[in-house]
Each structure stands twice: as structure tokens, then as C-alpha cells.
Automatic annotation (TrEMBL):
Organism: Ruminiclostridium cellobioparum subsp. termitidis CT1112
Residue span, EAL domain: 23-277
Superkingdom field: Bacteria
MF (Gene Ontology): cyclic-guanylate-specific phosphodiesterase activity
Keywords linked to the UniProt accession: Coiled coil, Membrane, Transmembrane, Transmembrane helix
The UniProt record lists the keyword Zinc: no
Taxonomic placement: Bacteria, Bacillati, Bacillota, Clostridia, Eubacteriales
UniProt name for this protein: Diguanylate cyclase domain-containing protein
Keyword Cell membrane: no
Length: 277
């Protein structure tokens, strides 16, 4: 028994060390990644089930490190937040996404919208609103063509400050999406007060929407709730046809997922959009 305990410890140690080394490596190379132009945005289409059209794109960050290869945002966003690099990086993301959207509009895709993920730390910056509005203005975009995706953590950490800022952005026409909806716990109380335009049903509910009754019920309720509050509902991580069928049946507004398209580099997504036109 003693022996196996020791083995288990060795394994644990190995796993922890691997994570630790990986994190150290990410940290080491992340701060030069901006200057070395190693970041890129991919874009995933959001498909409207009412009109059968792509109405928007979500910008998703990619990091191609010469040393580490393609690193998932799941791994480096956390490090970027801990090191506060996310503030600069997040601004870069917004600029790139607006630049591309303005390009698409000039290509005749005039109704296309853009969703951009915003980290809690960005919103907490005192000049966050000023920066967002400046960037949108610079690219001569209608603020209503931009949607900021936030998560519940931002609300839990400092409701008053965030509420105020979001309200002001909303008043300018900017859309606000609540990401990963359903995963947290305080969603409902915030929903009524916040200027939310879109709810994104978390992938974990969509994964087994046709198999697990609980997921079915939750999905159905989120859609109903969105409708009654005039909030658009989008399902994320839709991979299979049976999921799509359920979402259609429940009258979900939009879907996003591999079933329709994976996140794509800008040239590819532009080609896809032009082909659909
Ligand atoms: P998220 O905002 O919830 O984005 C959805 C994630 O699900 C993306 O992962 C997307 O590629 C993936 N996805 C979309 N459809 C499917 C599907 O059908 N099946 C599966 N299995 N996955 C699907 P990704 O691109 O790896 O991003 C992970 C997370 O990293 C994002 O989750 C978001 O929280 C964060 N992130 C990405 N880009 C940015 C950014 O520019 N800024 C900030 N602050 N966070 C970002
Ligand atoms: Ca998102
Ligand atoms: Ca999400
Ligand atoms: Ca997520």
C-alpha cells in the first residue's frame, strides 16, 4: 500500500510539474508575442435560424508561438490576465476585429456584425469606455454592429462600476452579450438589471441537449426567458444535426458551432461569407 501511495505521488508530481513548466513557458514567451506579431484572430460565423443567414462573427484569438507552436486561448488568456498583458492584447483584438469588420462592410457585407470577447480586467480600466468608443469611431462603424461578450465573473467582482460602464456603452448602441450563460449561479438576478442584448447558452448544455432531460429543460427555459425579455439567444458549440433540430424546435434565435463552421482565418471567412451572399 505504501508503495502504490508513493507511485501515486510521483505521478501527481509529474502532472503538476508538466502544468507548471507549461505555464512558465507560456509566461516566458507571451510578453514578447505582441511585439513579434504572433497573435492572429480567427472568426466564427453566427447563424440566424429565423433568416437562415450569417448575421455576425465572433473574433477568437490565436497565438502561434515559434517556440511553443499553436497555443490555445484556454491556456494563455489566464496568463495574459495574471500578467495584465490582456489589457494591451484585448485592445489589439478590438482594433483588429473592427478593422476586419469595416473591410467586410466595404466589400458589400454591410449588415455583418462583430462579437468581441472582453476580459474583466479590461472593463475595470478607467479608460475602457473611451477606448472602445474611439476605436469604433476610428473605423467609422455603427456602434450597433459591435457586440462585447462578457462573462458573469465581471459582474460578481464589481457590479456597480461595471453596470455603469455597460449602460453607457449600451446607450451608444453597442451590444452586450452574456457569455457561457447558465454555467454560473447568479445569472438571473443580474439579467433583469443589465443592458444585455444577447444570451449565449453555454456549450455544456448544448452538448447533450438531445439526450439529457435536464439540459433540455435548461436550454428551453433560457430561450423562453430571452424571448420574454427581448434578448436574443444564441447556442454555442453546436456540432450535430440533432442539436440543431432541438434548437429549432425550441425556437432558439441563433447558433454558433462546428456544425455550421469552425472559427476561420479572415481570408477564409470572407470567402465563405461572399459565397453565401
Ligand atoms: P468562448 O468565448 O466561450 O468561445 C467559444 C469557444 O468554443 C472557442 O474556443 C471556439 O473555438 C469553441 N467552439 C466553437 N464552436 C465549437 C464547437 O462546435 N465545438 C467545440 N468543441 N468548440 C467550439 P477558443 O477559440 O479555443 O477560445 C476559448 C476561450 O478563450 C473563449 O471561450 C474565450 O473565453 C477565450 N478567448 C478567445 N479569444 C479571446 C479574446 O480575444 N479575448 C478574451 N478575453 N478571451 C478570449
Ligand atoms: Ca465568447
Ligand atoms: Ca462561450
Ligand atoms: Ca467559455
Amino acid at each position: 500500500a505504501k508503495e502504490s501511495g508513493k507511485n501515486r505521488y510521483v505521478l501527481y508530481d509529474k502532472i503538476m510539474n508538466k502544468d507548471f513548466t507549461e505555464r512558465m513557458n507560456i509566461e516566458k514567451h507571451l510578453h514578447t508575442a505582441m511585439d513579434n506579431n504572433e497573435f492572429e484572430l480567427f472568426y466564427q460565423p453566427q447563424f440566424d435560424l429565423n433568416t437562415n443567414k450569417v448575421t455576425g462573427l465572433e473574433a477568437l484569438l490565436r497565438w502561434r508561438s515559434p517556440e511553443l507552436g499553436l497555443v490555445s486561448p484556454m491556456k494563455f488568456i489566464k496568463v495574459a490576465e495574471d500578467t495584465h498583458l490582456i489589457i494591451q492584447l484585448g485592445e489589439w483584438v478590438l482594433i483588429q476585429a473592427c478593422d476586419f469588420l469595416s473591410h467586410l462592410h466595404k466589400q458589400g457585407l454591410t449588415d455583418m456584425k462583430m462579437s468581441v470577447n472582453i476580459s474583466t480586467l479590461q472593463i475595470f480600466q478607467s479608460d475602457f469606455n473611451t477606448k472602445v468608443l474611439k476605436i469604433i469611431d476610428y473605423f467609422k462603424l455603427d456602434p450597433s454592429s459591435i457586440e462585447l461578450e462578457i462573462t458573469e465573473t465581471v459582474l460578481i467582482e464589481s457590479f456597480e462600476v461595471v453596470y455603469d460602464k455597460l449602460l453607457k456603452l449600451r446607450e451608444k448602441g453597442i451590444g452586450i452579450a452574456l457569455d457561457d450563460f447558465g454555467k454560473g449561479y447568479s445569472s438571473l438576478s443580474y439579467l433583469k438589471q443589465l443592458p444585455i442584448t444577447t444570451l449565449k447558452i453555454d456549450k455544456t448544455f448544448i452538448d447533450n441537449v438531445s439526450l439529457i432531460q435536464e439540459n433540455k429543460t435548461i436550454t428551453q427555459h433560457i430561450i423562453k426567458m430571452g424571448r420574454s425579455m427581448g434578448i436574443s439567444v444564441i447556442a454555442e458549440g453546436v456540432e450535430h444535426n440533432d442539436q440543431l433540430e432541438y434548437l429549432k424546435k425550441y425556437e432558439c434565435d441563433k447558433i454558433q458551432g462546428y456544425l455550421f463552421s469552425r472559427p476561420l482565418p479572415k481570408e477564409e471567412v470572407e470567402k465563405l461569407l461572399k459565397g453565401l451572399k
